[in-house]
């Protein structure tokens, strides 16, 4: 946590000195997000999204705690309690819409944050642990978002719970008992709603804990930067405060403009109208669609339509080794599990995509389009054309990480790297003897 | 940096006591952020207050035609018990002969009832001490030493006008705002 070029915390007034000797919390803050944390001087705006993710989580926690003061996790009244928040509670409409869209914006900024990491090689040594903890946060976010979506007990809530817990029934032997154990019954019901509410309330605090570890792990090697070249001297860095607090503050303002625009003018744009129909266990909506941030994963899930096994010969039945349902589930979890091993799949010594011409091409013309196409397929009905498209994009997605990246890192000839961050910024070589 | 900007005191150490452009920007930014935080805090504070469905129950109408002289009923208004008592002539007389000046919370019966309807005593059934529900409204309940209401929890005695006469309660039983819609219907709240 301490770099030779970091500014030292020296409390000036007697009270702060007294405090520092007893509970050095101001020192911790100073070294974490104050002037005591030296940051590369050349960060671009992609480096704002970590802080923005933290802000989005805080917005979710604050609005969520407030919503929980008015919400009732009871199947017969849950839907009405949400409407009560919308219509009767003072400012309740605002708090719920902020929470609804806050979830979407949390995912937007986290996705940008992840793409930043993917492109600039933030997952590479010595920051693997930062990346792994980040993937853990991502998984926890997905679980939290899913459970939160169930709470209003609308049609999409109910059938979402039905479908997602159905994944687990695909697991051989223990699948169905496991699903019933998760639901607390044979279908989503009171027990399900109650436990989801409990977990939805507690998981964000678990996320908060992992975020602390994520930042801690980041502060050991220090922040990366767009060139991928490590910091070599004090001149390569700026104190976090005031330089990056100001920059992050500006970014936060821009973020809030977008967030408020959606929350106040198109609050239901990102949602699904069917969730304003109270849950009906006896009638399924025409299209069960998850929220937009799950579309790519949903597409991978649905892309497997054929059982894996030995095909039927003549009139004899085939031998199914892995049924399609299980394949889809495995692939969906695999698409996220891939991220856990990414630091060891991409072997290139160069971090930043800026200096990796081949990597850059595959990243922008391969990986990103494949994820976008998967997203589109995830929201479209499961018809032949979209299924085939999802299969192609899905195959590329896996190939990108498992085959293309390892090959690229072997054959690619990187562009010459700048000698230092300072040289990349100013064009003048770094003077190691400067003060 | 353009040549013209070189002389502007924006990043240089200005002389002692002068305000730098940066100071102004700092104060302006923090002020705007403060206003924003305040604006964001408003809905978070407001949501704690009574919601519209609670406020909608703020007034009720009660049919009092069936309450005989000497009887009382309990009803509920704003989730609190309300006692409506049809006082007998003796109870009215008893309430009127009390020397108001000697009371802990000096009020006459007239001040606590509607004109020409002084037999109708409408009070909250909430002891002003710690909020228990006093006895005396239902038939057979203890009415206390002064024939009105008695709160057994800490021994507060109220008289036939619902005034505190003995015990720890500081004030008389609260008379809610009420009007006679007709001779047999009152509107509370």
Automatic annotation (TrEMBL), chain A:
One function term, GO molecular function aspect: metal ion binding
InterPro entries (UniProt xref): Cyt_b/b6_C, Cyt_b/b6_C_sf, Cyt_b/b6_N, Cytb/b6-like_sf, Cytochrome_b, Cytochrome_b_N_euk/bac, Di-haem_cyt_TM
Domain Cytochrome b/b6 N-terminal region profile, first and last residues per copy: 15-227
Binding residues for a ubiquinone: 219
The Cytochrome b/b6 C-terminal region profile domain, residue ranges: 230-419
Cofactor requirement: heme b; heme
Pfam families xrefs: Cytochrom_B_C, Cytochrome_B
Binding residues annotated for heme b b562, in chain numbering: 99, 200
Biological process (GO), any one: respiratory electron transport chain
GO cellular-component term (any): respiratory chain complex III
Primary site of residence: membrane
Positions contributing to heme b b566 binding: 113, 214
Main function: Component of the ubiquinol-cytochrome c reductase complex (complex III or cytochrome b-c1 complex), which is a respiratory chain that generates an electrochemical potential coupled to ATP synthesis.
Record's subunit section: The main subunits of complex b-c1 are: cytochrome b, cytochrome c1 and the Rieske protein.
Protein name: Cytochrome b
Origin organism lineage: Bacteria, Pseudomonadati, Pseudomonadota, Alphaproteobacteria, Sphingomonadales
TrEMBL record, chain B:
Catalysis: reaction(s): a quinol + 2 Fe(III)-[cytochrome c](out) = a quinone + 2 Fe(II)-[cytochrome c](out) + 2 H(+)(out)
Recorded GO MF terms: 2 iron, 2 sulfur cluster binding; metal ion binding; quinol-cytochrome-c reductase activity
Required cofactor(s): [2Fe-2S] cluster
Pfam assignment, any one: Rieske
Bilayer topology: Single-pass membrane protein
EC primary class: translocase
Stored Gene3D superfamilies: Rieske [2Fe-2S] iron-sulphur domain, Single helix bin
Keywords: 2Fe-2S, Cell membrane, Disulfide bond, Electron transport, Iron, Iron-sulfur, Membrane, Metal-binding, Translocase, Transmembrane, Transmembrane helix, Transport
Top-level taxon: Bacteria
Subunit structure comment from the entry: The main subunits of complex b-c1 are: cytochrome b, cytochrome c1 and the Rieske protein.
Subcellular location: Cell membrane
Name this protein carries in UniProt: Ubiquinol-cytochrome c reductase iron-sulfur subunit
Domain Rieske as annotated: residue spans: 84-187
Cofactor note: Binds 1 [2Fe-2S] cluster per subunit.
Protein source organism: Sphingorhabdus lutea
């Amino acid at each position: 946590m301490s770099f030779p070029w970091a500014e030292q915390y020296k409390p000036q007034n007697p009270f702060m000195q007294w405090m520092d000797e007893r509970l050095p919390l101001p020192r911790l803050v100073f070294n974490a997000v104050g002037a005591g944390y030296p940051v590369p001087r050349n960060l671009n705006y992609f480096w704002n999204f970590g802080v923005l993710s933290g802000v989005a989580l805080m917005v979710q926690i604050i609005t969520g705690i407030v919503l929980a003061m008015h919400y009732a996790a009871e199947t017969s009244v849950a839907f009405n309690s949400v409407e009560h928040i919308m219509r009767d509670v003072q400012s309740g409409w605002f708090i719920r819409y902020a929470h609804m869209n806050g979830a979407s914006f949390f995912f937007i900024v986290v996705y940008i944050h992840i793409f930043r990491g993917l492109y600039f090689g933030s997952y590479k040594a010595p920051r693997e642990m930062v990346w792994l903890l980040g993937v853990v946060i991502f998984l926890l976010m997905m679980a939290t978002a899913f459970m939160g979506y169930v709470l209003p007990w609308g049609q999409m809530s109910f059938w979402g719970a039905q479908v997602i817990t159905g994944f687990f029934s695909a697991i051989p032997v223990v699948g169905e008992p496991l699903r019933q154990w998760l639901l607390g019954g044979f279908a989503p019901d009171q027990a399900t709603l109650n436990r989801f509410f409990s977990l939805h309330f507690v998981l964000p605090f678990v996320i908060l804990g992992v975020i602390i570890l994520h930042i801690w792990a980041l502060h050991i090697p220090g922040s990366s930067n767009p060139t991928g070249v490590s910091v070599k001297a004090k001149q390569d860095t700026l104190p976090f405060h005031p330089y990056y607090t100001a920059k992050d503050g500006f970014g936060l303002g821009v973020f809030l403009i977008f967030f408020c625009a959606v929350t106040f003018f198109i609050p239901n744009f990102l949602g699904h109208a069917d969730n304003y129909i109270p849950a009906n266990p006896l009638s399924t909506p025409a299209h069960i669609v998850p929220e937009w941030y799950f579309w790519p994963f949903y597409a991978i899930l649905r892309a497997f339509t054929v059982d894996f096994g030995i095909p039927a010969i003549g009139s004899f039945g085939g031998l199914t080794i892995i049924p399609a349902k299980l394949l889809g589930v495995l692939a969906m979890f695999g698409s996220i599990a891939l991220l856990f091993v990414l630091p060891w799949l991409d072997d290139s010594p160069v971090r930043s995509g800026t200096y990796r011409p081949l990597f850059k091409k595959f990243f922008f013309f391969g990986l990103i389009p494949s994820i976008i196409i998967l997203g589109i397929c995830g929201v479209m009905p499961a018809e032949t054309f979209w299924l085939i498209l999802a299969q192609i994009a899905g195959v590329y997605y896996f190939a990108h990480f498992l085959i293309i990246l390892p090959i690229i890192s072997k054959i690619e000839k990187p562009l010459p790297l700048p000698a230092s961050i300072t040289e990349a910024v100013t064009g003048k070589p770094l003077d190691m003897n400067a003060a | 940096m353009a040549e013209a900007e070189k002389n502007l005191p924006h990043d240089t150490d200005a002389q002692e006591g002068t305000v730098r452009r940066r100071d102004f920007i700092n104060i302006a930014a923090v002020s705007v952020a403060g206003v924003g935080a305040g604006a964001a805090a408003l809905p978070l504070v407001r949501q704690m207050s009574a919601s519209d469905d609670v406020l909608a129950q703020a007034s009720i109408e009660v049919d009092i035609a069936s309450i005989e002289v000497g009887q009382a009923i309990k009803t509920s208004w704003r989730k609190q018990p309300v006692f409506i008592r049809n006082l007998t002539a003796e109870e009215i007389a008893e309430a009127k002969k009390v020397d108001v000046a000697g009371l802990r919370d000096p009020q006459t019966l007239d001040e606590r009832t509607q004109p020409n309807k002084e037999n109708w005593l409408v009070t909250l059934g909430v002891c002003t001490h710690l909020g228990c529900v006093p006895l005396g409204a239902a038939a057979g309940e203890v009415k206390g030493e002064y024939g009105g209401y008695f709160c057994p929890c800490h021994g507060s005695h109220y008289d036939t006008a619902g005034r505190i006469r003995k015990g720890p309660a500081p004030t008389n039983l609260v008379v809610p705002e009420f009007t006679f819609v007709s001779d047999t219907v009152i509107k509370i709240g």
